[in-house]
Inverse folding.
């Protein structure tokens, strides 16, 4: 049996939220419902989800602000905005934040489920949450066992070293933003976590020196990029 997709639903309308939760659970999704943006973000920080359904107009933290916070922690998780407004400006704002879809209330649960499933079909099969084995230049990297291997040489990585290298590998050739890496590996983007990550980046560079064609670049003010020179 396929694993249920886990959905974070953040909706301040008590009746609509409960109706949506029940309807989606009948469609075989696992749904956690939160009533405002602050509660939604606290929940997102401690549990893993496959998709987020975010109401736009909410107290304490609106859906757009919540989406920005979520994106700083996870750059790829699908987001669908739910709103009572059919305003073009809201649609544009949602798209700028990287929304995967946008639904105006009222809408049918069947249509919502169809759009969610279409999003899941588009997701890469080797997304960060599932891929654990990588080829990095001449290295073989196994995140499950935290082993970095080149030829006969094996290096056993710490948990944070392994998770950080995994993120660099997933983002290979692209910029891995500091905030994304910090929140994913350290659970915070504080100053002290940032200094710690810089130390771990230095350690990974040392391990990767055995293949001179693998390089981890500092992208000033943004993050890091792992490149393969050949």
């Amino acid at each position: 049996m396929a694993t249920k997709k886990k959905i974070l639903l953040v909706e301040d309308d008590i009746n609509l939220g409960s109706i949506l939760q029940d309807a989606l659970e009948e469609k075989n999704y696992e749904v956690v419902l939160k009533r405002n943006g602050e509660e939604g973000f606290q929940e997102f920080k401690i549990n893993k989800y496959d998709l987020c359904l975010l109401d736009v107009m909410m107290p304490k933290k609106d859906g757009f602000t919540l989406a920005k916070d979520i994106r700083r922690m996870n750059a790829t998780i699908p987001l669908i905005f739910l709103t009572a407004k059919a305003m073009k400006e809201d649609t544009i704002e949602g798209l700028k934040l990287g929304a995967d879809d946008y639904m105006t209330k009222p809408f049918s649960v069947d249509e919502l489920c169809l759009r969610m499933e279409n999003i899941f079909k588009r997701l890469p099969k080797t997304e960060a949450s599932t891929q654990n084995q990588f080829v990095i230049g001449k290295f073989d990297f196994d995140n499950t066992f935290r082993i970095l291997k080149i030829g006969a040489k094996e290096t056993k990585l710490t948990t944070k070293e392994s998770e950080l290298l995994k993120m660099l590998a997933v983002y290979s050739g692209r910029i891995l933003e500091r905030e994304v890496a910090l929140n994913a590996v350290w659970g915070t983007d504080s100053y002290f976590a940032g200094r710690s990550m810089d130390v771990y980046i230095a350690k990974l560079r040392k391990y990767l020196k055995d293949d001179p064609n693998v390089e981890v670049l500092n992208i000033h003010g943004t993050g890091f990029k792992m490149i393969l020179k050949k």
